[in-house]
Specification:
Length: 141
């Protein structure tokens, strides 16, 4: 049975308003016995590579393809670089007994940190897209 017809009949039986993408093609072989409506829709969407939303009593079903969405990110637009250094020097017993043996030690600890929030955000989003959909490569984005 064509997938769009299956979805239409399910929404009629559940008395739910539906918006079904006319580009949905293909068919499925599927059974479900005494399952909640949303569980059945979830399984069909998974099998048919579909995306759905259920809001305000309306089920909207469309082909799961990339789409644009804007998100507000509350973050200052800045890149920050921080550098710190610490020197420690010890020369224990240097003045005792006049012995000038080499018992001193020194250490230098240096740290450089660069923080660019938006570059990290872009990198992480790229990784999520590639991980969630192996058809994409970072170069495609």
């Amino acid at each position: 049975m064509p997938l769009s017809d299956v979805l239409l009949e399910l929404t009629r039986a559940a008395e739910v308003d539906a918006e079904i993408d006319p580009a949905i093609e293909g068919g499925i072989i599927f059974t479900a016995n005494n399952k909640p409506f949303i569980d059945v829709i979830d399984r069909i969407a998974d099998i048919g590579n579909l995306r759905y939303t259920f809001k305000g009593g309306v089920l909207r079903i469309e082909i799961d393809r990339p789409y644009n969405r804007s998100y507000k990110v509350d973050q200052l637009a800045l890149a920050r670089t921080s550098t710190s250094s610490m020197d420690v020097s010890t020369d224990v017993f240097a003045s005792v007994g006049g012995d000038t043996g080499g018992n001193g030690s020194s250490a230098n600890i240096a740290q450089n940190t660069t923080t660019d929030f938006y570059q990290e955000l872009v990198t992480n989003i790229d990784r999520m897209i590639v991980t969630s959909n192996p058809r994409f490569a970072v170069e495609d984005i």
